[in-house]
């Protein structure tokens, strides 16, 4: 395993992993990977189609396989919000780089995501975004090497906060 050189973004859906991740990669002169896109590429269908056809367990298994397949160097890696349910997946990501948690309050997430029912979230049909927030907060905290608050910040401001937090390590 080479020296970890990647920045791995974790956090709730809507926290900005995918959009801020691209900006961050440009600012830091790194590559960019989004594990949601790896899942789609491997399965030939959208995340929502996986959930609709085979259930949330199938999406979590597909996500774990996608994460374990990553062999990146010098990349920002945007993960899916559900990645923290996989202990082996998180161990792999930890070995690949620094885990940055984009922490965002629930009200802001609800505004950013809007209708989350078609976003392919790994949740039971009865679960709300608030339920996922409550269930996952401790997991993001547990795995984070660095936590950056994004509430009230623009994409660019979040990007700068992440850069500053990484430089301070
Ligand atoms: N800091 C921010 N300020 C305003 N909107 C944001 C911010 N971060 C993300 N968004 C918006 O929220 C939505 C979800 O962002 P995305 O990057 O896809 O999140 P994630 O990958 O964490 O689910 C997008 O419309 C994005 O533009
Ligand atoms: O939090 C979740 O349950 C999920 C979030 C999605 O990614 P984003 O966090 O990029 O929205 C995607 O990985 C998948 O649909 C599951
Ligand atoms: Mg994303």
UniProtKB/TrEMBL annotation:
What is its subcellular localisation?
Cytoplasm
- Primary localisation category: cytoplasm
Q: From the UniProt record, which GO molecular function terms apply?
A: ATP binding; magnesium ion binding; shikimate kinase activity
State the UniProt keywords alphabetically: Amino-acid biosynthesis, Aromatic amino acid biosynthesis, ATP-binding, Cytoplasm, Kinase, Magnesium, Metal-binding, Nucleotide-binding, Transferase
Residues given in the record as ATP binding sites? 14-19, 124
Q: Which cofactor does it need?
A: Mg(2+)
Give a single Pfam family match: SKI
The entry marks the following residues as binding Mg(2+), namely: 18
What are the binding positions for substrate in this chain? 36, 81, 136
Q: What is the free-text note on the cofactor?
A: Binds 1 Mg(2+) ion per subunit.
**Coiled coil spans:** none
Q: What is its EC number?
A: 2.7.1.71
What this protein catalyses is: shikimate + ATP = 3-phosphoshikimate + ADP + H(+)
An annotated GO cellular component: cytosol
Record GO biological process: amino acid biosynthetic process; aromatic amino acid family biosynthetic process; chorismate biosynthetic process
Pathway given for this chain reads: Metabolic intermediate biosynthesis; chorismate biosynthesis; chorismate from D-erythrose 4-phosphate and phosphoenolpyruvate: step 5/7
Q: Which InterPro entries match?
A: P-loop_NTPase (IPR027417), Shikimate/glucono_kinase (IPR031322), Shikimate_kinase/TSH1 (IPR000623)
| General function of this protein | Catalyzes the specific phosphorylation of the 3-hydroxyl group of shikimic acid using ATP as a cosubstrate.
Instruction: Name the family.
Output: Belongs to the shikimate kinase family.
What is known about its subunit structure?
A: Monomer.
UniProt name for this protein: Shikimate kinase
Which gene is the coding source of this polypeptide chain? Answer: aroK
């Amino acid at each position: 395993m080479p020296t970890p050189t990647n920045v791995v973004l974790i956090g709730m859906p809507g926290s900005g992993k995918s959009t801020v991740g691209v900006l961050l990669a440009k600012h830091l002169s790194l590559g960019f990977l989004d594990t949601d896109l790896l899942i789609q590429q491997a399965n030939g269908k959208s995340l929502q189609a996986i959930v609709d056809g085979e259930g949330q367990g199938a999406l979590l298994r597909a996500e774990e396989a996608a994460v374990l397949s990553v062999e990146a160097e010098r990349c920002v890696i945007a993960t899916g919000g559900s990645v923290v349910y996989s202990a082996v997946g998180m161990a792999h990501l930890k070995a690949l780089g620094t885990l940055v948690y984009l922490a965002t309050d629930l009200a802001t997430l609800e505004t950013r995501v809007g209708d989350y029912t078609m976003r392919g979230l790994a949740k039971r049909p009865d679960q709300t975004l608030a339920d996922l927030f409550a269930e996952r907060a401790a997991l993001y905290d547990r795995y984070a090497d660095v936590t950056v608050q994004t509430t009230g910040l623009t994409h660019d401001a979040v990007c700068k906060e992440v850069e500053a937090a990484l430089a301070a390590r």
